[in-house]
Amino acid sequence: MVTDNTRRSLLKAALFGAAYPLVGCTVTSKQSSAPVLIGCSISGRDRFNAVVADSAGMPLRQIALPERGHGVAANAALHHAVAFARRPGTYFQVFDYQTGESIKLRVADKNRHYYGHGVYSNDGQWLYATEGERGSSRGIIGVYDVVAGYEKVAEFSQFGLGPHEVIVMPDDTLAIGVGGVHTNGRKPLNIATMQPSLSYLDPNGELIEQVGLADNKLSIRHLAHDGSKTVLCGQQYRGEPDEYPSLLAMHTLGEALLPLKAEPEQWARFNHYIASIAATDEWILATSPRGNCYGIWSKHTQQLVELSPLPDASGVVVQGDEFRVSSGAGSVISQAAPGNKVTARSGVQWDNHWSVIG
């Protein structure tokens, strides 16, 4: 929960820049010096950063964050990036990913918290952030005017409780993973009655479509799209601990959610949780830090074709025609297709998610 004391501490950091160092430091890389990937990291007890990396996942610079980060959004036109605090988040931090310079520390409104994710509009003019109303978990998409210094100009709602990730489709439609969970801090309060959904809004915030899965204990959380019309959604299962339903689904507007396929013992490896997702024309890759693994599915057959161990498997993006997968243990996997991967050591304790610039 966003307490008044927390808000005051973060506001003090924003005003005086003393409590939390917000200037980036450069880390030597043997790869290209061009920034391509951005993610959050943990670098010690109560030390959290956003890390800018090259195309191979090797760090270039890091920006200190006041609290643990989660998702990151990037705006290539302005060289801006935004790190969102882990839910129930108290801030988002805007910085220049070329220089590491701090641009804005935006503290959550008094009766709001952030859910850890956001995305820029396709034209880069707006930032959309998943937010919740304190005390009710009413879902909100906060709309921020980038040119006006990230001033909040609108709120979209009426789509459910506990939105987690929001993405922008190529046609400017917003897709939202609505977890359906009312929480106090991180404690769930309505598991028996939760109503998760995959919800779509038009750019004006009007609800276009809302679909759900047959099992309402599958909380829809993380999203990706394939560059066209297909959305992939990853779930957290909040039902019986010895049941292992499908944790991934794909969807196109106007159709039903289609669960991806794997054997129950394979789903068990994911420990009831999907974190990051990315997709190409042929393949879908999803990570599970709780399961210390990632899987690759055929987009055409929806069948799991590879299940690989990876300690604290975290972010995944598509760079060129290859997946890049991060790990809290410091590994970076480069893989274009099942069975063919290269592993490198980044020296970064990656946390949760990656974003690709471009």
Describe this structure in words.
The relative contact order is 0.12. It is globular, with a radius of gyration of 19 Å. It has helices at 4-16, 264-269, and strands spanning 25-26, 37-44, 47-53, 59-65, 69-75, 80-85, 91-96, 102-107, 112-120, 126-133, 139-145, 151-156, 163-168, 174-178, 183-184, 187-188, 197-201, 207-211, 218-225, 231-237, 248-251, 258-259, 277-279, 283-288, 293-298, 304-309, 313-319, 322-327, 331-337, 340-345, 350-356. Helix content is 5%, strand content 50%. A 5-stranded antiparallel beta sheet has the order 1-4-3-2-31, with no helix packed on it. Strands 5-6-7-8 form a 4-stranded antiparallel beta sheet. A 4-stranded antiparallel beta sheet has the order 9-10-11-12, with no helix packed on it. It is mainly beta. Strand 6 and strand 7 (91-96) form a beta hairpin. It has one domain: YVTN repeat-like/Quinoprotein amine dehydrogenase (Methylamine Dehydrogenase, Chain H). This is DUF1513 domain-containing protein. It comes from Vibrio orientalis CIP 102891 = ATCC 33934.
Which terms would index this structure?
358 residues, mainly beta, Methylamine Dehydrogenase, Chain H, 4-stranded antiparallel β-sheet, 31 strands, disordered N terminus
Secondary structure class reads: mainly beta
State the helicity in percent bands.
under 10%
The main β sheet shows up as: 5 strands, antiparallel
Strand order of the largest sheet: 1-4-3-2-31
Protein name: DUF1513 domain-containing protein
Organism: Vibrio orientalis CIP 102891 = ATCC 33934
InterPro entries: Quino_amine_DH_bsu, TAT_signal, UCP028101
